[in-house]
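Attaching the record inline, Q. Sequence:
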Amino acid sequence: MAKSGLIVFDLDDTLLNTSNVYWLARKLFVEKLSEELQINEDKLIEEFEKIDHLQMQKLKHSPYRYTRSMIETYKSVSHNINHQISEETLKAIKDFGRLILKNTPNTIKGAKEILDWSSQNYSIALLTRGENSFQKKKLHKNELYKYFDFIRVVPHKNAEVLKKFIQDIGFDCQDVWVIGDSLKSDINPGIEIGAKCILYGYHHPHYHWIQDHESVALGSFYKVDNLSDIRQILESDSNSSSESRSMT
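Structure, as predicted:
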């Protein structure tokens, strides 16, 4: 059966529940500092997010960034209240950071089902940000490699990076679907290059990835709150395209 084009999936918080791993590390960190420094947890989170935003500009999506952000937050807050830095606390913070490296995120409900169906009807690609070996370890442990025809790990994503990836693997942008959880790094780049886009409304009950979700859409796109709803959109589009071809 001829395939209908290309789907470019995002990985973190689209197929894998990655934010949960980061949330757990931050939760342990904030609880530790709140007890030691006697500071409200919300204030610590606010300070941490400011510092992590700055670290993001330097370290991008390195899995080691979060540890650096936690250490810098501890030093900054301690300095402000004249608290002496504890080597024991620094060690604990590094242990919290190692959880991100050790704990592989699980697949989001419906991820394998939509990948299985999509791979039978489309060519499937993965474009994900981060460190190459770290991202591929997630794929291996969740047995996701088998679904993808093309995989590329990049330090950042924008329209230029997305377009080059699509052209490198031999597709035209108008024959592509882009599926991800971020307006900034998935949907807007897709809109810019003329692809069709589906935003997955990832939601974590306690964690909001501020750096990636403060953007305004550059055009129209679909949105789903469940990965299982993606199939209906793709099938409807495929049927519409078939009807249009039969009328010409």
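The chain has two domains: 6-17+105-246, 19-102. Residues 244-248 have pLDDT under 50 and may be disordered.

More tomorrow.
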